[in-house]
Amino acid sequence: MLIEFRPVADAEILALVTAQQRELREADGGLDGQTTSTRDDICYLVVVVAGRAVACGGLQELDRATGELKRMYVRPAHRGRGIGRQLLAALEELAFQRGYETLCLETGTYLPAAITLYTSCGYEPIPVYGEYVDNPYSVCFGKRLPVAA
């Protein structure tokens, strides 16, 4: 398994984000309303297994001290192997290297596996923020990162 940076325009990033968004729409009954496009201001990491991108996650700056995790996704055939946990750790390390003090994220109430992953990795519930405020299915989490010595 390899975790590597990929540019936003990478075809495998687009395929993973499209699959993630499709799965979200199916899980929430089509109420999510998110788009399937990638954004230039998100830095993506991809997990590669046997030469194929099987998972992705992004980091976006909210402000100088806060990063937001975006587009966390593991292909269904690769779930249950700890890939999401390793990707999350790599994204946290990237956030730390970029000087963020806090990471936050939004997920859906209809994604209990995601909520379990985040809470088991030290994320705590925070108030719903930003574009998620009016979505009744949104739940948000935050985590303080270690301070550099």
TrEMBL record:
The keyword rRNA processing does not apply. The keyword Nucleus does not apply. Residues 3-146 form the N-acetyltransferase domain. Pfam families: Acetyltransf_1. GO terms for molecular function: acyltransferase activity, transferring groups other than amino-acyl groups. Gene3D superfamilies: 3.40.630.30. PROSITE patterns: GNAT. This is Acetyltransferase (GNAT) family protein. The lineage of its organism: Bacteria, Bacillati, Actinomycetota, Actinomycetes, Micromonosporales.
